[in-house]
Every structure is written in structure tokens, then in C-alpha cells.
Structure prediction request, 573 residues.
Amino acid sequence: MMLSLTLRERPSQRVDMSPLSADQLAGKSAAQVAAIELACGNRKVRVDSLFTVAGTYHSEFEIRGGCDMLDRIGDGMTHGSIIVRGDVGAYAGARMKGGHIQVDGNAGAYAATGMSGGVLRITGNAGDFLAAAIPGAHRGMEGGTVVVAGDAGDRVGDHMRRGMVLIEGNAGDYCASRMGAGTIAVWGRVGASPGLGMKRGTLLLQATPGHMLPTFSDCGTSTQGFLALLVRSWRPVSEKFGGISATRIRAQRFMGDLANEGRGEILVWA
Amino acid sequence: MHIRNVLIEETFAEAFTVRAARILVTARNERWARECALKLTGFATSVIGCKCEAGVERELAPAETPDGRPGVSMLLMVMAKDELGTRLVERIGQTVLTCPTTACYDGFPDAPDRLPVGKLLRYFGDGFQGSKVVGGRRYWRIPVMEDEFLVQEDFGMVKAIGGGNFLIQARSADAALEAAEAAVDAMLPLPGVIMPFPGGVVRSGSKVGSRRSKTMIASSNDAFCPTLRPVTATALADEVNSVLEIVINGTDAPAIERAMRVGIDAACRDGVVAITAGNYGGKLGPHHFHLRKVMGEGAKAES
Prediction:
């Protein structure tokens, strides 16, 4: 039986779940997992004071009854799989290097910050600063793949350095702000001022944004051969994006932010 | 051994270890993929004078290519491994980068030896280039007047074999050419091999060195020249009046053996007297393809 942690009740304080990454659970029995201490507010509490622990850890575990007070799920994990039935708090998949996290719910702010590998899949909505750098950091997401089936908040990919973010719903304001590299694709709409301060990287859209910064310049519609490679690479992680025809490789290119080097691009599929 | 009354001589083809890259070029349609392949593999018949040997391995259907467009798979081979990267950059830079609608990918993605290609060609972008990492591989997007040229950052290098061969000895030039064409047509669909000479056929087989010049590294193979029969130590039977050679390079020995077996079988037809092979006494190349062994394993032979 797969290791499962069932939340007894909504915690009164935020819980740092980072000690429960797949890497740190390897070789531990249910009793040992139950004895792990988690930071909850300004206290340390045992896992079994918050969760009912059952099963044995075999490369994957499940958190049932998740809620938005559970922060840092999968922080720094390198392999294995975490499935969360419910919402998660902030920093889900932060500094993640490999493995797979599935959140069957919504995620809080700063999901995938510092992530450099693996796959984070959120079936609900993601909060602000998805794949973005935390305050004071120079880099947001640095690799891996994030798929959000719902909407994402503001400043998706702020200071993002590498990797893929696929948002199957809408994204908020300042999407791809200060982006340094990588790819963000949004199936629905984006909010105001996408690409603010963007240096490099790609924001890929289905429709021209309603509000485009004046520091983005229209370069016309052209063939972008790499789109075929991107679409093919998305097939295992997103039915929606992977379903796009690989022959759909023409896009309108807006280059910017010309106020900040201007080598980034907003591509709108033709 | 005879196949349809054609003598298969008791000899072997002597071949060499080379370093190879597989280049996949895709384009908007078959026309431009072929145009590009024609240029990329042009003037690449022999390392003796061309610095590399290259040829089309096969055409690729859209479902077989990385970007879902029609393509062509080519093999490019050199003798020294430190030359392969240079040849790739030269040829891809001059023939794929310049060719409308094309993109260029590595055909040996699992090869541990990697050569920088897009990594160097990107400088043509003069600072305006960008890259994308997709599926763990980096691809460079180089801006060009048409729109963008997409090329993979590095290409795999593998050991391969160059110089597999057989010689068709015929009663007439027409018979030799017909047999050679039949052999090449039969071998063309086979994977893992290229025939780098024009139409896959060589009329000027060479011997090592020269009788007259110390600086020549190769000269006409006079023992197989019918017109020199009275003045040289001929290797030809009296009824032989024309000889054509098929040179086969391949990714491994089984690929070359398979091609030789298919090609020789197709070449054994009316007007052909014997099939032989070129070698240097076994002292130079480590790969020996014994004709009778090759034919005995797969073809229906009459002894």
C-alpha cells in the first residue's frame, strides 16, 4: 500500500512540508514517517499530530485532504512522486530538481520557484508568482515543466531562467515579467502588460493580448520551426497543448521589452 | 562460387574505421529537403580529395522527423575524429543554413561523443540568436533573412566503416553500367549505408601511390583498366572490357554486408563476367568483407 498522509484537520498555522520530500522519506517505515517533525507556525510538531499515516513509502506518496496551509510540498525533491488530493499552500515544488508532483487542487504563491527539473502539475489554479523568483533572488524557475490546468495569478515567470510553464487557462497581469529565458505558454488570455522588463525567453499565446506594452515591437508573422519541437515535447504532459498540430509553426512575433535589452518575444500563434 | 553464371572471386573488400555523423535535414516540402541534401553531400566522394565522404542514407517521411516535416537523412564520414566537427560546421553552415525552409537535427542523439555544431553556427546570428532547450536538447534559432534557421546545438559522433566495395567486371561498358545501376537501386533503400560516389558508382578505382610521382597518394588502378591490359599486370579476364566499382560506407559491418549482398546479387546479370573487390592485402584496413562469405550467408548461390 502506498504511503498516504491524511490531514486530520486544517492547521491553525502554516506548515512547512519540506521534510516530507520523496528523497527524505526513502527507507522510512510508517512509524518513522509519523515521527518526523514539521514546523507549524513557531512550533515543531510530529507528522502524526497533523496527519493519519498509513502504508509504506515506495517512491511515491499521497497527501489526502490537502489545504492551502501546507507550504513547500516537494521542496528540493530529486525523484519520486507526490500526489496531493486537495489544495496546497505556497512554494509547491520549490527548488525541485526531479520527480513528479501532482496537485489535484489549487496551489498558492511561488509554486515552482527555483525549480530546475521534474514535472509539477496543478489541476486547479496557481497563485501569483508561479515559477517566479522569490524576493531577493535573481532567478525564478530554472528548468523542468509546470502544467496548470486552471488559471495562474500575476507575474508568472518573473525572473524565470529556463524551463516550460504551460497554463491551460488564463494568466494574470505582468506575465513573463523580467523573464530571462525559458518558455511560458498560455492557452487563454493574459492580463495587462505581459513581458514587462523581459530580457529573453518566449511567451506563447493563442491571441494578441488586450494590453501590449509600447516597448514591444511587432516583427510580423513568420515560421518558427522550434514550435513543432515544443508541441511534440508537450504531448506527454498536456493533452491540450500537446494536441496542437505540429505543423502549426507560424506565429506573429512581438519583440521586447525594448526598455530592457529587448531580446524577449511574445509569439501569437497565427 | 557463381551466381547466375557470374564468378564471385575468392577475395575480400578491405575497409577502414571512420568517424560518422548522421544529419537530418527537414524542409517545408520534399523538394527543398532534396535540394539541401544534394548540396550538403556534394563534392564528398572520397576523403582523398574532398576531406570527407557523405551521402544520402534515405528520405524521411514527416512522421519520422523531429519536426514533422519531410526530410532527408545523410551520413558524413571522415578518417580523423577531430575533423568531423569542422566538416559538419562547414557543410551545414554553407548548405543548410543557406537553404530556404530547412532545419537541421542530429541523427545520433544517443552517441556519447558530441560535436559542437549549432553551438558554433549560432555566431552567424551576430548576437541576435536565441536558443530553446526542448526534451533536454538545445536548439539554436539563428535569425536569417527568410525567418529563422533552427539547428541542434551538438551532433553525435560514432565509429563507422568506410570503403566497403565490390567491382563489377563486364563484357561491355553498357553491361557494366546497367549492372552497377541495378546494384545501386537495390542498395538505396537499405538503412545505415551510403554510396558516396556519383550515382553510387566509381569508374576510376585507385591504387595506393603512383608509379611516377612520389607526391600522389593515389593513382589509377591500372590492373583493372581494360585498355592497359597489354602493358600492365592485369587482373582482368580476356572477355572483360569495362569495370565499375561500388563503394559502400556504413554505420557498422552488418549494414555493409547486407548492402554488399543485395548489391552483388542485383549486379549478377547478363554481360557481367565476375565480381571482385578492392583490398590492400589486408594490411591497411581492419574490416574485411569476404565476398563469398557475404554471399553465402544470405543469397541463394550456385557453387
About this structure: Chain B has two domains: 2-14+161-298, 19-158.
